[in-house]
Each structure stands twice: as C-alpha cells, then as structure tokens.
C-alpha cells in the first residue's frame, strides 16, 4: 500500500498513537514536542498552522500553550482522532481541524505567524511544491523535520508499509534554495532509528536513549542522526 492510501486508512488512525508513542515511543513523542516548542517559542496568541497534523499531538499541545491554531490533514480518520483529543483536554473551542491538501493550502499569503509540518516530508511525493506552499501562507517561519539518508533509518526503511523518502543534507539545502527559504537553526537526533524504540518497553528503552543522546553529542552525532529538525524563514 502506498503512503497516502496507508495513511488515510481508518485502522491506521485508530492505532497510530498507541503503536508509535507508547512505551519506548514515548521518548520519540517527548523529543518531537520539545523540538516544536523550542523552534516556535512562546505561542500565546500567535496564529499557527500545522500541516499534516495527523491525530493532533502537536495541534492540541499548541492550543494548550495559548496558540490560535489550525490543524490540516488529508485523512478524515486522523482528524477525528484530533478532535476527540482536543475535547478530552478541554481545548476543542480553541483549535480547528480542517481537511485539506498540503499542495494547495486554502489560506491567503502571509496568513500565519508560523507554519510547521512534522512527520510529513518523508511521505511527500512533491516536497518542493509542499514547502513552497508552507512558505506562501507563513509570514516568516516554517519548521519541519526529515528522515536522513546515510543514517540507521536506511536499515529498516524497506520494511515500512508505505514509501519513505530519505534526505541528504544536500537534498535539504536544495529544497530550501528552490523554495527561497533561509536556514536559521537546525537540530539532529536519534542515532538509533524510531522503529527500534517502538519495539521496546519504556524501562528497557530508557538506557538506550541515554546512550543515544550521549552519542549524539559527539562529533559524529549529527552525521549519524536519523532525524533532523529544520527551522527556516523567508
């Protein structure tokens, strides 16, 4: 099953968070949320768009932080999960979930203070088209992540049920140049791939995460990292 079809399946949406962010996957969830909050900074009263919001992990978090946020996704099943999540924590009246196509965002130019997309570009069949759209609707800031070529991600990438695009640094630099975006800050993490953590109970995964973090701080860390976070501006 190809990426878009796999992603929109109802059963995938229902199991998405449990399969990826429970047990050892909690370390992934924590790091990703830290990356988003660190890049976007204080979001109180900011107008923010999350593209490919999925089940609303970040959308709801941003609403809890005081953002005026819209979460856009192509999957009705994923959006339903996000709405339920927002309702459970009492922010359903502060966040809007909308179905839409990331290649044709239904917003005017310069509409949002910040735009971000997590867990998206590894599924993007036209990354330049998508990034240009993120740029168009943002007043300045765009934040996104990539899975990296030359990392341990390659080891299990072929096992995934959907295609997964991996990026070299040169690929990202070319993508930014073609989208007329400037790199402001970057961060790299997870020498061990995500799939490794998701297979382990949290207590077993903890010491591996500690070693992973320590290795990431060495000169080889950035080169071996399987995930990169890119904070860019117009």
TrEMBL record:
GO terms for molecular function: S-adenosylmethionine-dependent methyltransferase activity. InterPro entries: Methyltransf_11, SAM-dependent_MTases_sf. One of its GO terms (biological process) is methylation. SUPFAM superfamilies: S-adenosyl-L-methionine-dependent methyltransferases. Gene3D superfamilies: Vaccinia Virus protein VP39. Residues 49-139 form the Methyltransferase type domain. PANTHER family: METHYLTRANSFERASE, RHODANESE DOMAIN-CONTAINING PROTEIN. This is Methyltransferase domain-containing protein.
């Amino acid at each position: 099953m190809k990426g878009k079809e796999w992603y929109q399946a109802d059963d995938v949406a229902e199991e998405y968070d449990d399969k990826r962010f429970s047990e050892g996957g909690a370390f992934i969830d924590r790091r990703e949320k830290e990356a988003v909050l660190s890049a976007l900074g204080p979001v109180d009263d900011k107008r923010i768009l999350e593209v490919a919001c999925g089940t609303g992990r970040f959308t709801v978090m941003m609403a809890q932080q005081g953002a005026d946020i819209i979460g856009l996704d192509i999957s009705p099943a994923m959006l339903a999960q996000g709405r339920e999540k927002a309702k459970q924590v009492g922010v359903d009246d502060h966040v809007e979930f909308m179905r839409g196509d990331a290649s044709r965002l239904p917003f005017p130019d310069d509409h949002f203070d910040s735009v971000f997309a997590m867990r998206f570009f590894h599924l993007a069949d036209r990354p330049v088209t998508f990034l240009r759209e993120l740029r168009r609707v943002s007043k300045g800031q765009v934040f996104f992540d990539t899975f990296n070529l030359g990392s341990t991600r390659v080891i299990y990438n072929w096992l995934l049920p959907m295609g997964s695009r991996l990026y070299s640094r040169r690929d990202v630099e070319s993508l930014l140049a073609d989208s007329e975006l400037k790199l402001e800050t970057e961060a790299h993490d997870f020498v061990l791939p995500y799939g490794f953590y998701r297979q382990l109970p949290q207590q077993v995964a903890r010491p591996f995460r500690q070693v992973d973090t320590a290795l990431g701080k060495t000169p080889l860390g950035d080169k071996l990292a399987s995930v990169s976070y890119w904070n860019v501006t117009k």
